[in-house]
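Supplementary Text 2. Reproducibility record for the structural model of the 179-residue chain.

All settings were left at their defaults, and a single model was retained for analysis rather than an ensemble. We include the record here because the model underlies the residue-level annotations in Supplementary Table 4.
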Amino acid sequence: MNSLQVEFNKEILQKLKESLAIKNVHEIPRLVKIVINMGVKDAVADKKNIEKSAELLSLISGQKPKIMKAKKSISAFKLREGDQIALIATLRGKRMYDFYQKLTTIVFPRLRDFHGVKTTSFDGHGSYTLGFPESTVFPEIDPSRFEKPQGLEISIVTSAKTNEHGLELLRALGMPFQK
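Retained model, structure tokens:
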């Protein structure tokens, strides 16, 4: 399988330059990073949950996630400042392109009743965010090993200035958008 990064640099950059009518090569939108975020539901109740979720996220992302701590205490959630409550993994370079390729060619086709991702999930600056209610759609995850369903959020950060340029970039990279 040819690397998406190589294909992007050889062919897709040129196509984007023509389709977006950009003269300067450095203004062509590119992927900057992919951030995978996971809030751990019962992290406060049981410390093992954060370890299990960290293992899950490292299987998905291919690298060890960073553990995020609560910034302030919220008594209604029995949450204290400094409690470990979330995980984050930031992918760049080859890992980012490999993950993106896995997302578009393996994960999305595995989803039941999938008709494409929404074009409305852009942030106004060309970056795209999508969420998964369960992480079992990833091929590395064995559902029998992880008893609790764990959701995650994926943010695809691009260098695009507008949503239209970001949409064009992700479409050129093979993101299946709704018709």
